[in-house]
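We modelled the chain as a single entity of 97 amino acids. Its sequence is:
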Amino acid sequence: MDMEELMANAQNLQMKISAAQDALALQHVKGIADNGNVVIDMTGKYDVVSVDIKPSALGQGAEVLSKMVFDAYKDAKQKADALIDKTMSAITGGLSE
């Protein structure tokens, strides 16, 4: 493989990765805690879009509510990580593993 072909392949891969990142920004995952009392909506780029807290969760105290929000965030992040891994593996053919 000559240098021009290598550069063309790298540029093509870079364009595919950029397009995938744009697509990830439009995809959403939901992190759920305490049977849905707290739900966090997050994009595939880790942007938190919304935090939904059910009224029943409010009466459980600040410490418990804080843990529920944290747990919902962790769940959303894990789901976003899996989405990112799946999306990027499809492009790179597993090169990033």
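As a brief sanity check on the tokenised model: The mean pLDDT is 92. The first helix runs from residue 3 to 26.
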